[in-house]
Amino acid sequence: MLLSREKITPLVSELLGTFILTFVVLSVSKSAIGIPYFVAIAAGFVLSMAVVVVGKYSGAHINPAVTFGLWSAKKIGTLKAILYIAVQFMGAAFAWRLYTYLIDSTIPNIANTEFDWRIFTAEMVGALIFTFGLAAAIYQKLESGKLALTAGVSLTVGIIVASAASNGVINPAVALGIQSWSKAYVIAPLVGGLIGVNLYALLFAGANFEWVKPKSTKPVTKKVSASKKSTSKKPTNKTAKRKKK
Fold this sequence. Notes:
By secondary structure, the protein is an all-alpha fold. The longest helix is centred in the middle third of the chain and has 26 residues, at 78-103. 68% of the residues lie in helices and 0% in strands. The chain has one domain (5-203): Up-down Bundle (Glycerol uptake facilitator protein). The termini are far apart. The chain is globular and about 50 Å long.
């Protein structure tokens, strides 16, 4: 079958995950508490939930930067990576349209129309931090709960760092959904994802660093146990007489 359940489920997982993430970011950012810290925490919770709910089916990328980074490290095939990115943008677009329908209003583009290297750098560094932490969880093969926690915290920290000079998106699909759309918000997270995943893969993946205790300088003395002493052979009377002869 061309469209089997095993092929459709991961794509639906990525679509739904990106849809929920985009809608939550839109709702929080447009609310009365729409400051970067609350947006970052909300996004981290959504990613943690996605890892637990659909992580075993698709890996819960829900971010083209994550998919691109893992593809560059050969953790995902080319065709699957293209399909993942396509449905991620679809999920974000659906969230954008549903949100504008519910509020009965349009959302203006909040991105800077002119290219700004500070925004680019902020988005790149934030995505680098996020994907570096996520790569650590993947390469260390953390279990579901630890993986979800690490992914959520890494995303939260990455968004907070990026929000110093940008809108703190670090996700090209979400950038489309919340109308923070520009070259910097698309390219910078991809570059950050590329660096973050490969940096961990090259320097830390498979490396075993252990603290070695210093060897003791005291001389080692062997003690013979009482049982060994008792079992040691003593010359018998016969052997003693033979020696005299």
